[in-house]
Amino acid sequence: MKTILHWFKHDLRIHDMPGLACINPQDCLLPVYIFDPRHRVKLTYGFPKMSDHRLAFLEQSVQSLKEKLQLLNSDLLILEGKPEELLPILAKQFNVHAIHTEKEIAHEELQVLRNVRNSISIPVIEFESRTMFTESQLPWNVDQLPSVFTEFRKGVEKHIGLNHVVLAEHSLPQFPESCNLNEIENLWHGPYAKHRPLHPKSAIRGAGGEDEGLKRLHKYTYGMHGIATYKETRNGLIGEAYSSKFSPWLALGSLSAKNILKTVNDYEQEFGANDSTYWMKFELLWRDFFQWTFKKHGNVCFQAGGFTGIEKKTRHNPDTFDAWRFGETEDAFVNANMKELYLTGFMSNRGRQNVASYLVHTLKLDWRIGAAWFESRLIDYDVASNWGNWMYIAGVGNDPRQDRVFNTKRQADMYDPKGEYQMLWLHELMAKNDY
Ligand SMILES: Cc1cc2nc3c(=O)[nH]c(=O)nc-3n(C[C@H](O)[C@H](O)[C@H](O)COP(=O)(O)OP(=O)(O)OC[C@H]3O[C@@H](n4cnc5c(N)ncnc54)[C@H](O)[C@@H]3O)c2cc1C
Asked: Which of 142, 119, 123, 143 is nearest to 131 (CA)?
């Protein structure tokens, strides 16, 4: 009997897990999550890499995974420290045969994985569980990936297709008998995030964790049939119904992208396909596209010139940046969106496009400080979707039009014609030191 350690990262779920599906049912599974202190450092910009909002959602998701595993006669070891220091200790203590973990695409995560590999002599096997399609399914090598989305979409639709998807199925191998939690050092003593009740106006109505994510998936499809009108409502700004709100659960892997695709396909079988059901798949393709784009281009995605290398002239002005991030600019629509982000950890896609464009094209600040602020505050923060969308708007990424400038006044007139969204947020008070 072997012991496999699954190191959970952004795959905080039990369903559709290729890394669990390939474990022999006779073997043991040691599930582990590690809170890495490097994720909470203060950036040179003066704010933390991860705000309390994000941390609270993450902590809920990890605790919920532990509770779920316990209900299934397993458990989750939650530790705090550096994975490259803790995993070798666990591997020795529990005679671990191999480590399974999610495949990474971004620089920092890849570096940690390299450190782990260098500190350990057992195999560390990576599994693709984040995207709808695996790298080997793509009709291109990643280094040949098209840089324009339409080309990517057409290639995937033609060569893979969107209407059939198989989820990884498995039973849960037993927890190692030899594992006594009392003997383990570096156990996590959190939660550390300040307890904050859900903001009464928040568009995200659920807590972190797989059950809440699956509940949202079911509600948006079969419950409220939001999926059947998604294309017409997705540019909304207020409430839980205008778009799916799958992103916070997707970002932490509490929902699998494949599972969403399968649910939409099943829904189409039962209730019929239309432009809206297709559009959900279209948006999920954007998500896959940014993941592969990141894999292709690597670290340059964090540089001012993005992967085009075109560096634009920017200003360094901390007061202007503060006015943007705290919702105190001259633009009421931008301010309302920035307040929503600050107070809830979420903002609509329409809002994100406008505030990003405003920072880049009106305030002429370096797009990377905006991306870093989003990284700190968004509960759905995803490295590829965030930095990829910011590069796109700054004209240093995938946009063939180069400079995507949004006229925020015109956008407010179109999407908030009665000013209801602005009224909802502009009068909210904010403690500016609430990290
Ligand atoms: C500047 C900027 C930064 C962004 N940062 C992030 C981020 O950190 N994390 C994140 O998940 N999304 C990010 N997005 C994309 C998008 O705004 C969110 O995915 C979306 O608003 C989440 O709400 P939803 O789940 O209701 O989306 P829906 O409209 O219901 O879409 C369903 C799903 O499709 C995917 N999707 C939709 N639009 C995009 C897009 N433009 N790019 C990539 N995937 C998309 C998401 O996974 C989303 O959950 C960003 C967009 C911009 C313009």
From this structure: 142
SS3 content of the chain, % helix, strand, coil (to 5): 50, 10, 45
User: What are the tens digits of pLDDT across the range 275-311?
Assistant: 999 999 999 999 999 999 999 999 999 999 998 888 8
The rounded distance, in Å, linking the Cα atoms of 208 and 281 is 23
Q: Kindly state the average pLDDT of the residues 34-51.
A: 95
Domains of the chain (ranges; CATH) run 3-129 (3.40.50.620), 210-298 (1.25.40.80), 303-426 (1.10.579.10)
Q: Is 389 in the pocket of ligand 1 (CB under 6 A)?
A: yes
Q: Is 134 in the pocket of ligand 1 (CB under 6 A)?
A: no
For residue 242, the ligand 1 atom closest to its alpha carbon is 26
For atom 26 of ligand 1, the residue with the nearest CA is 245
| Mean of the per-residue pLDDT values of the chain | 95
DSSP per-residue letters across 304-354: TTTTTT-PPP-B--HHHHHHHHTT-SS-HHHHHHHHHHHHHS---HHHHHH
pLDDT at 183 over 80: no
* CA separation for the pair 410, 412 (Å, rounded): 5
Q: What confidence tens digit (pLDDT) does each residue in 257-276 have?
A: 999 999 999 999 999 999 99
Q: Give yes or no for residue 54 CB within 6 A of ligand 1.
A: no
